[in-house]
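Researcher: We're teaching a course module on how sequence relates to structure. For the next exercise, students receive a sequence and then see the predicted structure as C-alpha cells, so they can try to spot secondary structure elements on their own. Here is the exercise chain.
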Amino acid sequence: MKLTEPEHVRPEHGLAAQAVQPVICYPADGLQPVDLAAYRAARAGWKLQERVLVPPREARSFAVSAGCFFRICSIEGPQVGDLNLWAAGDLEEHFFSGKTRALHGTHLSTGDRMWSNLPNLRMMATITEDTLDWYGFDAFGASVHDVIGTRCDPYTHNLLSGGQYHQCCHSNLARALADHMGVPAQVAEAHVHDVLNVFMCTGFSRDTGQYFMKASPVRPGDYLELFAEIDLLGAISACPGGDCSTVHSSDQAACHPLLVEVYQPLAPPEGWVPAGANGYDRSHGR
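Model: And here is the predicted structure for the students to work with:
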C-alpha cells in the first residue's frame, strides 16, 4: 500500500520541480501518416470472409490476411475483450503494448496503430473506425480501449483472492492459442502477452495513480474496426468481468459474447504495401 503522507519534507527546489512543463517523449509527427480516406475507400464492395463468435468467459482465435479488415463487435450486451495479435507464422513477433502506449497514449482510437515487439517494431494493425470515439476522456481521466492494463490472470487472482480460477483472460487466451497450435495450454501461455483492452473503460486514480476500471459505455452495435498491415493471427477473450463495472475475474459479472468479423476488400487501399520490419541495422554499436 502507498503511504498516505510523504515521509520527507519537500526540498527548496521541490515546487519549481513540480511546476516544470512536461515534454512528450515520443512525438508522433515522425510516424507514417494515416490516410483514413484511402483505408475507408477500400471498404467499398468488401466481402465478409469469416465470423468468429467468442462465448462469454472464453477466447477464440482468428486469422486476418494483410490488406484485410476485421471488426470486434458488441452483439448482445456490454462486454469488454482482451486482444492479442501475433505475426502469422511467427509467434515470437507479437503486439507490443508498451511501445504502442508510448507512441499513441494510454488509450487507442481511430488513426492509432498497434505495433509489434522488438526487433521488428512494425505496424501490425491500424484502427480505421471506433464507434466509441465520442467518449474521449471523462472527468475521472478514464477513456476506452486501453493499453495500460495487462490482462486478468489466474496468478494475480490467486495472489489477491486465493483459489484456482480458470476463466481469466490470460487462461482463456492460452487455451485459444493452444487449440490453434495443437499444444498444451501450458506451452501456449508463453506466447500470451499484454493486450489491447477493447471496449474497457479505464484510467489512473488521481490520488494514488492506481489503475481503475468503470462501466464500459459499449452497447450492442458498437465495434472497433482495424486493418491488418501484416498477416495476423489474433485471439480475443470475452473478459469474465463483463463490462468491468463492479468485479474482475469472477463468475458474478453478467457476461456477453463478442463477435469478430473479417472482411476482404476488392483491392487494398491506394498506395498501401504490407509493413516491413524496422530499418535499424541491429549492430548496437558493435
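Model: If you want an answer key for the exercise: The two ends are 44 Å apart (CA to CA). The helical segments are 14-19, 36-41, 97-104, 154-161, 169-181, 185-188.
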